[in-house]
Structure formats: C-alpha cells, structure tokens
Design brief:
The chain contains 8 helices and 8 strands. The chain is of the alpha/beta class. It has 2 domains: about 140 residues, HAD superfamily/HAD-like (Rossmann fold), CATH 3.40.50.1000; about 60 residues. The strands form 2 sheets. A 6-stranded parallel beta sheet has the order 5-4-1-6-7-8, sandwiched between helices. A two-stranded antiparallel sheet has the order 2-3. Helix 8 links the parallel strand 6 and strand 7. The longest helix is centred in the middle third of the chain and has 19 residues. It starts with 10 loop residues before the first strand and ends in a 10-residue tail after the last strand.
Amino acid sequence: MSLKKVSYPVAIFFDWDNTLINNWDAIHIAYNETLFQMGFEKQKKRKTLEESKYSLRIFFPKKFKNNWIKAKKIFYKEFCKIHLNKLKPDSSSEKLLKNIKKKKIIMGIISNKDGNLLRKECKSLGWNKYFKIIIGANDAKEDKPSKYPFLLALKKISKKPNKKIWYVGDSDIDIIFAKKMKCFSIFLENDILNKKKIKEKPNLIIKNLDSLKRVI
C-alpha cells in the first residue's frame, strides 16, 4: 500500500520487544538458564528470538509440558535479575513517540511480555508519559494473537476497531492480531522476519520506525 493512501490514525498501538526496544539479551540468557536447569540443551539466540513471539503461558506448556510452572519460576527469577540493565531502546523510538505525542494521537503498547515486567521496563525508560494504555501478557483473558488484549485496550480508550487504529509489530502474529480486529496492520521488518518471509499480509510494511514519520 502506498503511504499516501494510509488513513491518518486516531490511535497507534505498538508491540514492545524488537519493535520499540531490544531486550533479547536478557530473554536469551534467562531462557538458556531455564533450559539448563530443566535438563535441556542450551540453544542459539536466533532460535530463542523465533520462539519469543508467543507469551510464556502459551509457549512454556508446549515446551516443558507438566513442568512448565517450575520452568516459569526459573525463567522469571533469572530474567528479573537483568532485564532492566539489558534494556536497549531503538535509536528512533523516542523521537517517533515525541512526534506522535505532539500531534495528540493516542498511543499504547500491547505486548506478549508479562504485563508487570513490561510496565517496569517502560517506567525505567521514562516513557510512561507517551502511553495511555500498556497491556502485556496475563493482563487480558488470553494473549496475542487472541483478540482479547486488543479489546481491552480499545475499551480503555473508548474506541471501536477500525482502520484508523494502527498496530505496529515485528512478527506474523502481530499481523494476525491486528487483522482479527480489522485494524490497520503495520509490519516492521527485522533480522528474524522480512517481507519475503512473512505469510500474512499486513496493510503496510516498513523497514524502520523512521518510515512512520512520513505518514504521521
């Protein structure tokens, strides 16, 4: 879709990890320690990144079966030790957020990272001032790509689904998530996925966050 044909947004929701920030080092370190303590072989970072698009409560029961609660406790114990120190904002993120705020467009985050940890990370960056709503895993009945996190977000800002509600994310489940709600899906290309690899078709594909400045 041409940038000229994009409807001006009334609200923009962002994914978090690998969209606005990078916290893969913390995720990978904590997950590898979890694998080790649970009797699995450690894995390469790329595989961890590919698996991390799903929330823990979706992925861990599949990976660790009946022992997933034990694995969850190990992961969060390790992750909480390091995640704030390993947090790295994208170089373009805050400039974009400032620009959007000046235009008085509502902003929010909908992520598959645990909601409490997500809000801690956002607060540590001093970014709470940009977002009216911050929703993470376990905040809604189900996590992405279920519609429930989006329904909760829209309820909190008193909006109904439409193409003037944007969702920006870096994975195929982010595209599915937005399309389920008939909102405007924006896919951010990255090291794991690019436009040639995604199976779902978003409304718009961007190479970086700077590209959004052209339409906002």
